[in-house]
Structures are given as structure tokens and as C-alpha cells.
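Input/output pair, single chain:
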Amino acid sequence: MTQKTTNVVAFLLLSIMFISAFSSYLGDSLTMDELSHIPAGYSYLSQKDFRINPEHPPLIKDLAAFPLLFLNLNFPSDSDAWNKDVNSQWRYGWELLYNSGNNPEQMIFWARLPMVFVLILLGWFMFYWTKKEFGNKVALLALTLFTFSPTLLAHGRLVTTDVGATFGILLAIYFWLEFLKRPSKKNVILAGIVFGIAMLLKFSVVLIIPLFIIITFIYSLLKRENIFKYLILSALIGVIGTIFVILPVYQFHILNYPVQRQLSDTIALLGGPPMESLKTLCIWMADKPILRTLSHYLLGLLMATQRTAFGNTVYFMDMISSSGWWYYFPVVYILKLPLAFHILTIITLLLGTYFTKDYFWKNTFKRLKNCIEKNFTAFTMTAFLMIYWITSITGNLNIGVRHVLPVFPFTFILVSWILVSVLKKIEKPAFKKAGVLLTGALLCWYIFSSLSSYPYYLSYFNELAGGTDNGYKYVVDSNYDWGQDLKRLKKWVDEKGIEKIKVDYFGGGDLNYYLGNKWERLDSQGPPQEGWLAISATLLQGGRGYPVPGFNQSALYYKWLDDYIPVDRAGKSIFIYYIED
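Output:
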């Protein structure tokens, strides 16, 4: 396949992805995290004040908010959520979007558009790197898997940090490998700048630091290079990223953040164990003119780490817990990716093992060393997958497959690389043809599975879960119901001529804005209700799951609805009941 043909096909694939992502987000109402991220980003750029949502770095929120600067929005500067409360991100978000005379639909539309471009840029860079490293066929196969990934399509349309973090990790690893191969002044500077940018996308990106330490040591040993030279240059890259990227960006964001307000906010947000010494240091730096920028970055990092350690209350396969399950992410990963991809992965691993079984039979260490040296990029990707999966499994923050999005591009690349390599090694024409046809059939299934879920990408589940309609039985929250179907509930209520409906809604939309006087709040903790009821899947399942031992919060309050069948759904995630006397 020629370079021109390869590039044309890649352009068509990314165009399909852009159209799918853009057109599908038009029908989605505001999701939970967007209620915080969009207004937070606007406050950074318009006020140069970083008091809202410090637990995430600002860059993605800045990108989303940039178009809003041209909308002449009213800023709720007199709101208690801005003036008095500490990080009252949800209340402040509601004030800016729905209670300040602004047009929330217009704001949501323009804030999401840059996110789609980030998604496309991620796909392009993955294609570029894969083509450069592994060739045209591998690049196109990986890009096909990327283009039609329901999870990437779901979260690449929303103002959240997960796709941005994935892009930052991919970019940072690429430039680090360039630095290892050619430690020139240019590559050191580029690696430092990209490292700093990556660290401004999401705090989980810090997981690339142990990866960089590991691969730098291994690379220097394999190439018999001076390890001390690499260590000094690695430290220099970190300094460049910190001093010339992270700190200037944070300095801009706190220009109008009053010093005493920053100090009091930091004290309020950092209370108690763990990491008490780091928290004490962060608080001490918060009002020091030279150090307060670094303090604010450290504050966000500590808040993110603390949240990962403590977890959230979540529903998972008929259970309710706030401490998490080690097998949560593996199960969700299996259920949220198209089944065709899992079959392709298994076949690829089996064939790859078969064709390499004799290679490592003798002189295993020497052969392994040669294999890593020859395929160091693939080894780096594999090492990252191991680090990220281990960290995800051992953490307690089980709220969505989006948190393991950074493994997606590397998995797509490695599966594609091994598969293409294996197909080349098959000597018998009949077997080779069968392998190509099977791969093509699985890809068609994969694409069909994705397209058939349009526009409900966020709620997508594969055939193992019984399809999208049944995914809520396993997990909810950002895996299934993040508030995206409120506009569809409004449409349903209007079409059916419903005068009053009781609603228990989970998400970033405002019920008064969409439903006006046609709704009233459903008391989830009260006795069984009558009439029309609309309940978000996250809240419905949260009230039907059985608490694990040690869970002492309210539970089973929606168990009475097991005796009723929903009459309809708004989209996929809001269940509608009619309960008669």
C-alpha cells in the first residue's frame, strides 16, 4: 500500500470519527463533570483565578473555555459559590450556566467542539507514530480500531480530561523515546516542553515518570550508554517542563487569585492524613510569593491522589461500595470494548505465542535482550500498559472505564503490530487467506457494533453484557449514565403531553431549565411513589444494589421498583415508570 493511499484512508477514517463525535454530542445534555469543567475553564481565562476545580490541571478546561470568551457571558461574581464557598464547583457551574442569563446550550456546543479536535489530533498522532515505527498496514489497522472505539467516541466529545490525558501520555512517551535514541539539545528541549504540557492535562499523567525511569535505565544498559549522562539529561527535561511550562501556566491562572484566599482554600482542602508532611509543605508555600504557584500545582496533585485512595460510592454488579474492587476495571474493560476486539486480541496473542515459541526456548535471556533492543518502542508500550493497569487495579476510584483510556491506543497499536507480523509469517496461501478473511470479518463486526450504538456511545456495552440496553445491570456512572439524556427526557415529556413527572436525575443538566414546571423532585428515601417517575440509571441502580460488608450508607431504597417494568426510557439512561394507585 502506497503512502498516498495510506494517508487518504487515514483521512477518511478520521473524518468519519469527527462526524460521528460531533453529530452525536448535539443531542446530549450536560454530563456531570462538564458542569464543573466548562465553568471552571471560563473562570480561569476570564478572571485569571484558579479557585474552582483545582484537583485537575487547567489545560483541557482552558481549551474548552476559549470559544466562550467570544460569547459575552455574564459572570456570577457576586455568587456565594464564587466569593465565599471553598471549591463549590458544582454550585458555581450551575450559577454560570443556568442562573446568570447565559445560553447554556450555546456554551455546551462551543465548549465541546475543541474536545473533538483533541480526539482527532490524538488519532492522527497515533497513526503518525505507528506508521513511522511499524508501517502502513499496522497504522491503518490501529487507526480503524481507534476510529470506531465507542468509548473514545463517547468521551472524546465531552469536556473531561481523560482523552486529553491519553494524548499527553502518547505524546510524552514518543518524545522521550526520541530523546533516548538521540539525546541532542533539540530533543532534550522538545521532551521537556512536551513533558510539561502532559503534566498540565491530568494528574494521573505522573505515572509516566516511573515508566521513564525504567526505560531509561534499560535503554542505557542495552546500548551500553553512560547512565549518568541520561540521568542528568532526564533531570534537565523535568526542570525544563516544570520551570518553562508548568509554572508559567499556573502563574497565569493565579494572577488574580488573592493570596490569603489561596491560603485559606488550601488549608480547607487539605485536611488530615495521608501524606501529612506534603500537605503541611503545600500549605506553607501557599502564601509565599515565589512558591505559591508550585503550591497550587501540588494542591491539585494531592487532592487527586487523595481521591484515588479514598474512592467513591459506586454500583457494580448488584453491589454498592465506597472502597472499590480490584477486578472492577478488568471487568468493565471486557464489557465496554466491542467483543470482536477481544476475540481479535485473543487470536493475535495465541498466534503470536505459537510463532515465537521456539525463539525463546533456548538462550532465553539473550534472546529476550535482543528482542527488547530490536523492538524497544513496543517494549515501552507494554511496560506502560503494565504500570497503568497495576495502578488502576490497586486504586479505589472505580467510577468509569474512562480512567483507563490511556491504555486504549497502545493496546490497539500492539494488537495490530503483532497481528500483521503473524500474518506475514504464515507461509501457506490458504491459511494466510483465511487469516486475512477472519481479520476482515472481525473488523466488520467491530465497526458494526460501534455504528449500531450511535448516538448512545456513552452507554455502549458489548454482547457479553447483553448489549447497550442491559449494560446498566453491571455498572453505571460515566460507564452508562452521566446525565446525557435529560434533553431526551424533555422531548419525551413534551411528546407524551405529560403535565407532571417526578424526577430523580443524575447529571449536569438543570431540571428547571429543561422541564420547567412539569417536574417535581422524587423523594428516593421516601415510601413507594405513584404517577409518572423518571429515574437516572446511576441513582436507580445505586438504590437497588446490596451494600458490601462495612458499607454504612443508605441502601436498597429503590428495591421496591423491582416489581415494576419501565414503560419507556429517555435515551438509554433515564428509566420512566408509571405507577398506578
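The longest strand covers residues 531-536. Strands lie at 314-316, 319-321, 501-504, 519-521, 531-536, 546-547, 568-570, 574-579.
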